[in-house]
Batch of 2 targets.
Target 1
Amino acid sequence: MQLHFLLPTVALVFLCRVSNTTANGEKSESAIRPGIHQRSIRSTDTDLAQLRALKERASSGGNKCARRIVGYVTQWSLHPFTVKQSLGLTNAIFAFVHMDPSGRLSLPSDQTSKDRLNDLFVARKAHLDQGLNFQVSFAIGGGENSQHFSPVLSSDGGRNLLVNEIARILTQHRFDGVDVDWEFPVVGIASKGKPEDRANYVTFLRDLRAKLGPNRLISVAAASDQYAVAGYDVRNLLRHVDWIGVMSYDFFGAWNSEQGSFVGPNAPLRHAGPSGYSRKQNVDWAVKHYVCSGQDPSKIVMGVPFYGHFWYRTSPSKNADYPLFRVAERLNNGSYGGSASYRELLTEWRLQENPAFEKRWDSRSSTPWAINGKFVLSYEDERSIREKMKYANEYNLGGVMIWSVDQDSADSSLLDTVFETGCSVGAGGGRYKCNPLDGEKRWWTWDEDKKNAGMCGKMAPLYKGFYPVCDPEAPGLSCCGLHGYCGGGEESCACEGCVDYAAHPEKLVEEPVKPTGPVRWHVGYEIAAVDQPRCGPKAPKLPDGTVPICNPDSRSSCCSAAGFCGSGDAYCRCDGCVSYEKPGPIGEKLWYTWDDGVLAARCGPSVPRINGRVPICNPYDPGYHCCSSAGYCGASPEHCACEGCVDYTKRR
Ligand SMILES: *[C@@H]1O[C@H](CO)[C@@H](O)[C@H](O)[C@H]1NC(C)=O
């Protein structure tokens, strides 16, 4: 505790020095180089003793913390960043160094910014003196200053300039690394984006790494929004950066939409909303996306907010079971609400003591919220932070990053919770069920095609040549039901023949993903009618005038005498039935076909094998289902009834 009183005195020493040399920006910047800090830190031996003791007590492993704990310190924070706070971090990031339209960088020159930079370098020096590690990076970009990335990184000249500028700032001011906070490539949002941003970002980071070498830190702060994540080539970005910090917060906030402002948790750990709410608006989805796309959880750092969002005038929730999820009205002065630091919530709002706030816990999102009449607040507390840390441990993530340390309570209760939980718990065995399509879409959506929207399965119109599946993350639409439409609930997810892609994402790529032969069956459900598709001469002809068959890749691969596709003896093994079934695992080639040229209708051990197996004859082909002793498929007694012949119909 005493450290709090001692350190500001230490800091004051430099502040005087800094203000003595503020004749111009460059000089004042050089005054905060760590070398200058040495004397002042050394002058207080009690500090050092306490520092050592604190560090040991806080960690029993201290800097050996298994995960990165990255804290942003904002240039506008009026609260000093203390050495005690730095003890709870492995890395700190100063936000922000300013970028101009050409890509030139400059340190902010206002006194508050200088003070915070001073704090950071004091903390690093204190660590160094103890033989401990604490790295300080600077951030560029952010919500207010990302507008120049896209144009600057579009040209070789601009990219080189920015790379050189970063190297210059790193060297001149002795930072340990840079954090690139481009909000956001491709989708823009804070500024205009374009498709080339995605590749340009990788090229830029590749060049930056080449320039800085392996020992400087390069990190990226990345979007968590379901649309904005498309702007990142995660796997290639990870080749050049030390970590990606996922900004997994601001899923709900007091901003505009046509229906009003949607009220919900700022940083729900997991999907928490009623049906109809996106399953992608939560920490779990965002972090999983980066881990699955990058295949390296040790470089994925999960964002943790030290602040909350609030709304002034909310309507009652339409879902009694989801009281936090509601809509807020816009006030006459144009605002819906705002955000508040945890410190403000405790000191100015007196959240803990004030009886006007009814405090609740949302167990689905693992976050606290508070309500006072129509006023609603979503925030974080020690409990929610602990849950988030457990998650980071469970999935063995690279660590967590905090936006921002200066918003913590005066006694650092959130940061202490992060540090204790993040460093004391070992790695968990949590593994994500990654979507094997890795962002590729193979389902029909309404905006693309109103007629085919929602159709799935083997009888549906092909989507880009694929049998359409269902979006595993679309709420209530992630199962392919018996009727050939994507849906939710028992009838689509739990029935025999239904496919639940949310529970079994591996089925998204289960073979056959494309038709194994020409499409000679009805698609769409007017004639195909999923459970009873039409086939044979009695059925309506295909658009090209030919007689429809049944899809051999489907469960209904036999045509009954009455002209309907189905399975079982009444469709496959009766007088007048035609079977298009395939033996063995669907899609596996077991015999040669006319496509195979001279090998067509060849069989037996004397001809080349197919995937290591002796080729057989098509047991469903009335003219070619037997293999002769000479190795030819046919249906005559020489093929079927001789010594050494094999009749494959008997084996199906
Ligand atoms: C709008 O009104 C709210 C509630 O009265 C108030 O707290 C807030 O500061 C106002 N905002 C502005 C921009 O005036």
Target 2
Amino acid sequence: MLLNAIRVAVLLALESVMGTIAQSFNVTTPIFWQNTTITTPVTARIKTSENAFQPIFDNLVNQTSNSVEFKDNPPEFSMPGTFFWELALFDYLTNQTTYQDKVQSYFASVAKDNPDFSGQYLDTALVYGYAAMQAHRAYGDPLYLQYAENSWAFGYNWTIKPADVQAGSFPGMNWTIPPQCSVGTLAGGTFWQALGSDNTYINALATGLFCSLRIAC
Ligand SMILES: *[C@@H]1O[C@H](CO)[C@@H](O)[C@H](O)[C@H]1NC(C)=O
Ligand SMILES: *[C@@H]1O[C@H](CO)[C@@H](O)[C@H](O)[C@H]1NC(C)=O
Ligand SMILES: *[C@@H]1O[C@H](CO)[C@@H](O)[C@H](O)[C@H]1NC(C)=O
Ligand SMILES: *[C@@H]1O[C@H](CO)[C@@H](O)[C@H](O)[C@H]1NC(C)=O
Ligand SMILES: *[C@@H]1O[C@H](CO)[C@@H](O)[C@H](O)[C@H]1NC(C)=O
Ligand SMILES: *[C@@H]1O[C@H](CO)[C@@H](O)[C@H](O)[C@H]1NC(C)=O
């Protein structure tokens, strides 16, 4: 929760640094938001964001040859990936390379023994792919593009294609894909976890992350 609060604080501060971060959602300020006119100078806002990162660095332990973990949630593997993308995004938005070495060293730790970033949940690999995309945009290192492509290839295997919908089946699954669900076709949906042949859990995080990778790669 602390981490999420910090992420929101960092993103809000950054958003005001840059005016508007391009996103696919409706960025019109909702009328019920209060005091949205930010008068704090840009330099102060950047400083606030940097300060917000510090507790997260303090929480990030166990950077070993094959892992990075948060102290308060060691087995959870996707959260560190979300932190890498915030660092890279911060550098990109502020036109700096402050965290370049850190991001590179974190990625190297994780990728050493886990080059496609697979984890307990399928969306974990896609979190790292999305982080790699942000890092590539911020630092231009082609290695990150490779990481993003690896992640894409992984996500592709767990994403329902139009042909699967037409056939009514997905490789390895034993249930019938309906032609339509309540909001439209299931094509483009990405599975959340490799649970077995009766797994029908497709979630927004996996689907959204894979969709961003598909557009970028
Ligand atoms: C975006 O949000 C604003 C404010 O809530 C609303 O007035 C507007 O209709 C929304 N636009 C779309 C395309 O949903
Ligand atoms: C917004 O700013 C006004 C004037 O400074 C203040 O009285 C009010 O408490 C603020 N509202 C919030 C939600 O911070
Ligand atoms: C760090 O990793 C070591 C070895 O895997 C483990 O024994 C230890 O509990 C970890 N520490 C934390 C704080 O997660
Ligand atoms: C970013 O920094 C570089 C090198 O200092 C400069 O050439 C470029 O104009 C800057 N871009 C922005 C968007 O500030
Ligand atoms: C994707 O599936 C193909 C065909 O089953 C397999 O050869 C490939 O190794 C898989 N790729 C990843 C990254 O899982
Ligand atoms: C699908 O496989 C699961 C085991 O993974 C099994 O429990 C279930 O009965 C199977 N369903 C059908 C329709 O074959």
